[in-house]
Amino acid sequence: MYRDGQNQNSKNVPILQVKGLKKYFPIYGGIFLRQQGVVHAVDGISFDVRKGETLGLVGESGCGKTTLGRCIMGLYSLTDGSVTLNGEKVVTAKGGRVGQALKLSRLKMQMIFQDPFESLNSRHTVGEILEEKYIIYNHLGITKYKANERKKEVLKLLDRVGLSSDVIRRFPHEFSGGQRQRIGIARAITLEPQVLICDEPVSALDVSVQSQILNLILNLQKEMGLTCLFISHDLGVVRHLSDRIAVMYLGEIVELAEAQALYNQPLHPYTEALISAIPVPNPQFKKTRIILKGEVPSPINPPKGCRFHTRCRYVMDICRCESPHLKPSANSHFVACHRY
């Protein structure tokens, strides 16, 4: 389950670049259903993911983690910004998607969804679900897999994720949650992608199954040389899986650093509070918990200045009027806080 110096020799080359990404959802109401406002789900996020590394993305529910992942995949059109894969823009705000470039990017970038049941077509068998991608890219003229070759590839995928060949004729509702997630992982690694976006892939599973799925993802990453964006709210899991960690709050990244540096010396007060909440498996150890006061502001009307100032114990006057930018503090440690 845990990493041990993985990717130490990875090339320092960005394979995935997100620049100024924004996603606002309009709110309609009234008799004539006119737009009355917007939800600032993701608000100006930029980061790079280097080849072969795992970037963890953490934050409390509703901060925009899943929306960010879906925007990167092109499942949501962007309000602003762009997504670049291998130096080529695949998703932009103008036009929403870059047609052929996005189709080709799906060969190289795939997603594992949070709900292993809703993400699978309940009317298709496992064999049909896994074979579908080969058929689609055959029609696009990108691949040339014959029917018998597709069947062989599906059986290889099932073996890779630890499922027997006799499940090929069964439907998703006949499996447990862990087995369904294995099917989702098998679908994601079809056609050998380079980037894997994992959207809380174990949050809907039993604790006993979570470590098995995490081990499977780690083994596949080592075997295939995958680059991962791992989205989760479980800080303990993210700590051991990730090379770097980005912390999100209310649609913005407030801190980005190497995993060990972030846990040893968190700079942002929100990160301090999150880390203080991680349980320690030792009843004799007394840990000081930082309790955040107040409620999370509404993304419909986020506060001016720093979005965290309404709950921050270090708040200053400048925090209420000027928004801090993500800037380097030391040793590739970036923080959006006026204290630094």
Question: How does this structure look, described?
Answer:
This protein has 340 residues and is an alpha/beta fold. The protein has two domains: 14-242, P-loop containing nucleotide triphosphate hydrolases (Rossmann fold); 272-340, no CATH class. The protein has nine helices and twelve strands. The strands form two sheets. It has an eight-stranded mixed β-sheet, with helices on both faces. α3 (126-139) packs across α4. The longest helix has 18 residues, at 207-224. It is globular, with a radius of gyration of 21 Å. The protein starts with 13 loop residues before the first strand and ends in a 5-residue tail after the last strand. The model is unreliable at 1-10 (pLDDT under 50).
Overall domain count: 2
What is the count of β-strands? 12
Residue-averaged pLDDT: 88
Tally of helical segments: 9
Radius of gyration: 21 Å
What is the fourth-level CATH superfamily of the largest domain? P-loop containing nucleotide triphosphate hydrolases
Q: Please give the largest β-sheet.
A: 8 strands, mixed
The CATH topology label of the largest domain is Rossmann fold
Short description:
Helices cover 29% and strands 24% of the residues.
